[in-house]
Amino acid sequence: MQENKKIPLSEPYFFGEEKKTLTDCINSGWVTTSGKYINLLKNKIRLLTKTKYVSLLVNCTSALQLAIRSLNPNQDDEILVPSMTFIASVNAIFYNNCKPIFLDCDEDYLLDFSKTREFISKNTFKKNGYIFNKKTKKRIIALIIVHAFGNCVKMDNKLINFFRKNKIKIIEDAAGSLGSYTKLQNKIKHAGSVGDIGCISFNGNKIITSGGGGAVITNNKEIYNKINYLSNQAKDDILNYKHDEIGYNMRMSNLNAAVGYSQLNKLKLIIKKKREINYNYYKNLSKTPGLKILRENENSYSNYWINILRVNSKEYGRTKNDLIKFLSSKGVEVRSIWYPNHLQKAFINNQKDKTVISEDLFKSSICLPSSYSLTKKEILYISKLITSYAKKN
Ligand SMILES: Cc1ncc(COP(=O)(O)O)c(C=O)c1O
Known about the structure:
Elements: H1 17-28, H2 36-49, E1 53-57, H3 60-69, E2 78-82, H4 87-95, E3 99-103, H5 113-123, E4 124-127, E5 130-133, E6 139-146, H6 157-165, E7 169-173, E8 181-184, E9 187-190, E10 197-201, E11 214-218, H7 221-231, H8 254-264, H9 267-285, E12 291-293, E13 300-301, E14 307-311, H10 313-316, H11 320-329, E15 335-336, H12 356-364, E16 365-368, H13 376-388
Helix pairs in contact: 1-8, 2-8, 3-4, 3-7, 9-13
The structure holds pyridoxal-5'-phosphate.
Pyridoxal-5'-phosphate binds at residues 59-61, 85-86, 88-89, 146, 173, 175-176, 201, 203, 214.
């Protein structure tokens, strides 16, 4: 490996078909929000996720925003959300004038269902068929589950049924989890297809990209219709420009769908490579004391779109920040995992429940280069840098 070569964190990879489908859009004139690639991409996602309805949007942040809006929230309704998530999951709550209640995650960076159950039993009460927060007396209308870093949350079927019975909708933030699967009651389900609404991202750094884009997947026709209506300016009478609600302009363009469709055709190949990348990091790093590469949990089939390294600074002899600085100085692009959202300046005054693991994980975890184009040689180079940097006593 050349010393001065830069290795990016997670860059998109294009296979060639993207150019052809983009040219096809331009030649046909269908470049905005209608066209054949919109339908092709929708159908392919429907088949992959085994969901009835798919809506294509400009990004996953908008998908989350409309997912919440489709529940017709009242001002100050509350939504349960893990602190360990990208800020978009929480911003979407505020866009809808609702408030978050921050919950903790487990050692796999995923919402801890046993802590969630405990929070519900100790801190809520039931009235008129809804669940209310004892502290604020506000209604809890949804739970956002985040399938972080390709892994799927270990869901508790009993608690899911409890939420269903008590009008708490489940929104799955599956932004990075296209091609990841979870096991629930011995059934294999695509990430985002277990709850009421799933949201997926096609941002440039994800497992596939549409050059920016998002999708909502659902089996609920009412939710699907509402999201389509809202994302298309809430048109009630198209001829006379009548709009009964405040809508948004959030639909994906045919150009973006063309790129996304071409990429989706390569998903199997991409995941195969991503799984090899994870295995190589695991093989190279796991013998060094204090280092742990995130692997899929017993309930997940992970797409491994990004690799997470946990650093136990006592055993490794260096902190996470030392390692980030060191690798950056060698041209290896690495990054911290998400800052816990209950500590974000804009959210600091919101309710949180036992968010200690989220803080621990933040202090010790980094994202490693994980692009499709990453070679075995590059992984070895990065791994050797990391292992040789361990402080010998
Ligand atoms: C967990 C999570 N949710 C939401 C998003 C937002 O996705 P987008 O960039 O498509 O808006 C991301 C993007 O990184 C994410 O990781």
